[in-house]
Records
---
Amino acid sequence: MKFLMKRAVAITIVLGIIAVGGVLYLYKTDEEKVFYRTAPVERGDLLATISATGTVEPEEVVDVGAQVAGKINSFGHDKNGKVIDYGSVVEEGTVLAEIDDSLYAADVAQAMAQLQQAEAGVQRAEADLEQMKAKLYQAQRDWERAQKLGQSEALAASSYDAYKSAYETARANLAVGEVAIVQAKASVKQAEAVLQRSQRNLSYCTIKSPVKGIIIDRRVNIGQTVVASLNAPSLFLMAKDLKRMQVWVSVNEADIGNIHPGQAVSFTVDAYPGEIFRGEVGKIRLNANMTQNVVTYTVEVITDNSSGKLLPYLTANVQFELSRSSSVLLVPNVALRWSPKPEQVVAEFRTDILGSAPANGNHNNGQNHNNGQRNHNGEKTLANGGQSVVWVPEGNYVRPIRVRIGPSDGTVTEVEGKELQEGLEVVFGEQQQAADVGTANPFTPQWRSSRSSNSSKQ
């Protein structure tokens, strides 16, 4: 009898403990709920772009160098009468600098003297030729008389031979005189060429602007000696027209296929953070660059700089416009990337969307293992391509809505779907909150269920 009573008491105690534990478990389960973080589907405009970084460059740059060696004596003056310096606006032919010309002036004087000497040589050769013609005439007349007399008592044989030899010698000397004139005239041409070269070198001592433009860089100072050898030393860097600028942009090989001439471009510079500049693609350079196995192409973007705000070599943050959409439905990219756990999905959709879940309720730590892929922004797409899934809350669960995805600007993506409408809340995350946090006693022992705290009740 005592044994039966003890057994009944023990059973009663065990049942009481189980009942109390169940109540505490249910109370705790009701207290901890999963709150889904949602964002509304919005209607708006979308601009899909490719981002890159570039440098503002003058459209045409002229490097003015020196073709002779010497010391810089002075700088010229711009159209405002100021000494040539950084930012000076100059016209074509404006004197930029003067190089010491003493050595080159001496070369010119020497070349002129040589030319005068060569011209005098021509005159002498011509006078010699006239003298030779006269001697030939006399020798010819003597030879003709000798031929009439012949070898006789009136003309000795030796005299006959002497007249003949004098005639032939005079005729040969005439040919020599004609050649001497040709040689003297060639010497004149050579002296003229030397004089022209000396004069040209002398003119190179005056550095003039080859074009109308603005001085971007002055690379020499007065008193500095420039040495022209195999490479001409650079003295000034000029931009022809700063009203039209270029942006040289490095574009990754993965994006270069989306770039084409005439494409609209917008960019900003740190100097004017609140202003957006516009331009268009001019050309794509084919000489690719490789840095650490990364291939990039240089794209030239043409932009108008009539305001003069863009300065050479500013860093530009460039956006190549791929497409524009107006009044389309937009969802955050994070909503396209979020995946629920199997137990959070409405039961009728679990098999179709997530497949069968493991017996312990875990599904690869909450990651979706459907047959989808991910596009270039990381959003999951189904196997049929161009489609994805967004999740909408339904009580303590979520249900999927299939959508077709379009362009993205990196933050939101254009979507289409039969069940989509503006203002529909889509899930992009979850957070766990206590139902009655304000009245909880921090010193009271907290009971935890065996399920994950961020899972909702089934």
---
Amino acid sequence: MSTATVTVTWPALGTTVGLVVLGGGHHAAARRAVEAELAEIDAACSSFRQDSELAGVNAAGGRPVRVSSLLQEAVAIALRAAALTDGRVDPTVGRALVLAGYDRDFAQVRGSRLRRIRAGHVAGWRVVALDREAGTVRVPPGVRLDLGATAKALAADRAARRAADAGARGVLVNLGGDIATAGDAPSGGWAVRVADDHRAGTDDPGQTLRIAGGGLATSSTTVRRWQRRGGEAHHIIDPRTGTPAAEHWRTVSVAALTCVDANIASTAAIVLGAAAPEWLVAAGLPARLVGVAGAVRTTAGWPDAGAMGA
């Protein structure tokens, strides 16, 4: 049985999609499955589409809105993320993101007119009412949900499973650094590279390692950045201040059983700052943290760069 892989890439969700299929068979069907999943996630969870289900919830003025099972799942995961991190990853940061300047697709943000960074009030995740029995979501007037901290990782997990269900023996899906796997792995595991930027080449600073399964996520303050009056801004909001998180780590990569869990932890670590390594150790999560000046720290069995390739 072939252990070769077929890799295809294409743009989607404002990032680059990488699909790796073990054995090469069913790669066309796997790509169609991933494309279908990403289209559904975008229609449900996008903060930048006026016709998305999430936009309807935010515009409802405090009324409950009946939504799809997919958006219910995405909101439930965002609330779970908030509970697991004591609110450090919070889906009610949407207004704070807008006030920081991230109010449209990132390609447009970078070229937009400079505005002063302002602190945005974060209502807190407990104001979100998800009724799974009624199939509704409600937020108070003025609260803007943003699922950017978890929805892309959810898309990676769901897309990998869907590609495997389409016939792929083994599959890896990479959505701009959010990585999920399903099915069999190649001999020795899936080769992945972690770096400040998911577009980095093998000659750029980073680390190559192999994973047998599960998920891996990288959160970074170096890629989605833009100039604003008063300084630069990035897209990871500290709910305690309503402004971009203080930059102690420029990149955090975490491995976990799912991409969602890895992403929750990597995002929380950026917000936690100096306290992140202790928090990750307590959670038993292997992680690689890169400080602003480039110093690397690892936790909980993350492989040495020398052992896995630098």
